[in-house]
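Run log // design_07
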């Protein structure tokens, strides 16, 4: 089976925006590089990455959640998802996305995306999950990570710093993955 790369990111970008286009390109590049793309199944970055992967002939796993659909009436799994995996709650969904992937790439996002990055990094740090690539794309994540890294002697050990990579572009993110 091909390795799975989970793509995290905001649900807000819409088709025609730079964020959407970059996530679509990421999905395309991942699929063309031999990866299965996994997302949170809905709109924004999730839809764009799913779309890019699907348009390139790739397999897309969408991990959906009853709780989210209850919170956002009318929300549906995007049309680009090939295989849907459904959870009743956010915790189960998040845990699946993190644990059932061989790498993670985070595009720009808000609190939800920050949670996904922190959860993945935390599980990597305490060796709760096998070592995998965790790559964050863009200046906002670089800025946040750099604030933590400046405290490295007191809060983040050098070995834990190495568990997360920051890059500027989606092409760099895909290049930063280990070959499938």
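design_07 sequence
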């Amino acid at each position: 089976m091909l390795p799975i790369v989970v793509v995290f990111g905001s649900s807000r970008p819409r088709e025609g925006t730079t964020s959407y286009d970059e996530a679509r390109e990421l999905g395309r590049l991942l699929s063309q590089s031999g990866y299965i793309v996994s997302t949170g199944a809905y709109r924004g970055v999730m839809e764009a990455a799913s779309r890019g992967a699907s348009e390139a002939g790739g397999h897309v796993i969408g991990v959906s959640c009853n709780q989210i659909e209850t919170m956002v009436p009318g929300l549906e799994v995007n049309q680009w998802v090939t295989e849907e995996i459904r959870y009743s709650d956010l915790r189960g969904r998040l845990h699946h996305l993190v644990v059932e992937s061989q790498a993670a790439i985070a595009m720009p996002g808000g609190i939800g995306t920050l949670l996904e990055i922190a959860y993945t990094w935390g599980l990597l740090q305490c060796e709760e999950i096998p070592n995998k690539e965790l790559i964050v794309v863009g200046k906002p994540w670089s800025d946040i990570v750099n604030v933590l890294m400046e405290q490295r002697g007191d809060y983040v050990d050098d070995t834990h710093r190495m568990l997360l990579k920051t890059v500027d572009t989606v092409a760099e993110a895909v290049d930063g993955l280990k070959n499938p």
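The first helix runs from residue 18 to 32.
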